[in-house]
């Protein structure tokens, strides 16, 4: 039986990068790639400026279906990423770049103002190398407005979950489709909810398959990760994804004794009861 040691996850590696920042970092990759096509440009610094929301640039297309597809896909890429892993972070940006292009081309007019705020903050970060430009009330408000739009227009089922020490409360989804899992942490420790679907060729229940895992490398052999959300004590965040019919497990792998700044040395939270199984039809 899985005693918990097999699925510990580094706290820092699971911090969720703010959705708006992720969009802009990927957009910056597109801008940087274009600049590097010129030898002269490659030797000079590039400053990104916010486009005029009315000039037909960012968000000029207004294709709602394409925008929603891109928004959910982009959120998936940045749900679990280690910002200190330069190679992995660069690979994530490579994956996100074409999706960002789709997002920009399709964004509805209602989001122009908010996208402009995010692009402007990215320009400051790109010029200075200081990511604190993302950590402003203005950027937070723009990100919140974009997510509010997604909830209202992208056929998302909102799933409210509360994380405590050491349990989840809330009704987990039972119908297939797009979801936005909104998690509030009312505990004293950080919590990470990983939602994973049992692979079709794995025998037995999701609970049995989860308990049978003997090493971290075994997890992807039995489950596909679908959504993840990390929250510090007293904080809230969300993760979007699309759930298909099947058996699922939701669990927190963070060790007991962890803080927002470091990993504890106790057993994983799921070994203390922070694990649920559910079926999506």
Q: What does the model show?
A:
The chain is α+β, with helices and mostly antiparallel strands and 281 residues long. The protein folds into two domains: 19-153, no CATH class; 156-280, Immunoglobulin-like. The protein has helices at residues 19-35, 39-42, 64-77, 86-106, 112-128, 137-153, 206-211, 219-222; strands at 157-164, 167-169, 177-185, 191-198, 223-231, 236-243, 246-251, 275-280. A four-stranded mixed β-sheet has the order 2-1-3-6. Helix 1 crosses helix 5 (112-128) and helix 3 runs antiparallel to helix 4 (86-106). It is globular.
Produce the secondary structure layout:
Layout: H1 19-35, H2 39-42, H3 64-77, H4 86-106, H5 112-128, H6 137-153, E1 157-164, E2 167-169, E3 177-185, E4 191-198, H7 206-211, H8 219-222, E5 223-231, E6 236-243, E7 246-251, E8 275-280
